[in-house]
């Protein structure tokens, strides 16, 4: 059931009012492609975008961030954490990326809570935009059951009008009281009618038909498939063209591995601890003291990434480790394709 109806100008007005209270991060067009960037006004956003090259992961889990600064004086050592509590709104987040954020939430709050991520997340509002059809070729979000989201957002917008219409009309569903208050206190939009609800039902039916199935098995069958494929020759054969550049890791919305580095001044009295993204396809990722490497070959690194995305994360968290956005496939300079790997392994079995 819809909670509200908004025209495109009304939505932009609401975003502009939101910008008075929060920094706005959303899809911005750059040379024919889209990137999540910080903007100061709603007109800088392109909410009709298809997909962004990178997910909004960086707004919650930056590629590089300072965790704390430290100082040594008179034989004593003090450290002060650096916590980002800026109110933020992610505007224009597709369902697949909402699922990815849900996984990051789970990862960073389990066991040892990561206050840097969780503080940033607690101050972030998410405004989702649903996809009625695949955003681009190659995506397999329907296979991963991530092409729709019913949680993980504050507001979800459904573009119910014809894509060629000059003034889009959005059906609004509230996810939290924060999202509801934003729309209602803004005094924009109207109450949905019976006609709007029928249009929404038709939208959902068309969406179901619009997403093709790319995999030859269901997502929950992938762990069993990989269990039987550990020694497949496909890993080495595919990895022969892998450059171990890590582009797949950097573009993936669910990768959360990181490295820790300490930077100090020349005197050694002050410094900071930095966290930077890391990736399992990089040659040094599994290297330990003494120069030993647990995964020295590209084939073992490729297998490790696929197992994490399709098996281990799902089994450990119950959430998809791969959301089917195919960003890794588009970023890969060697044109290694995840769907092809899954389907070829299925053929072998």
Defining traits:
349 residues, 2 domains, seven-stranded mixed β-sheet
Write a structural description.
The chain is α/β, with parallel strands linked by helices and 349 residues long. The protein has two domains: 181 residues, no CATH class; 130 residues, no CATH class. Helix content is 34%, strand content 21%. It has twelve helices and eleven strands. The strands form two sheets. Strands 1-9-8-7-6-2-3 form a seven-stranded mixed sheet. A four-stranded antiparallel sheet has the order 5-4-11-10, with no helix packed on it. A hairpin with a 2-residue loop joins strand 4 and strand 5. The chain starts with a strand and ends with a helix. 34% of the residues are buried. The model has no long low-confidence stretch (mean pLDDT 95).
What number of domains? 2
Runs with pLDDT <50, length 5+?
none
Determine the N-to-C terminus distance: 43 Å
- What is the SS-derived class? alpha/beta
Shape: globular
SSE string, helix = H, strand = E?
A: EHEEHEEEHHEEEHHHHHEEHHH
Write down the Rg.
Answer: 22 Å
Number of separate helices: 12
Query: Biggest β-sheet, characterized?
Result: 7 strands, mixed
Strand-residue fraction? 15-25%
Biggest sheet: strands side by side, in what order?
Answer: 1-9-8-7-6-2-3
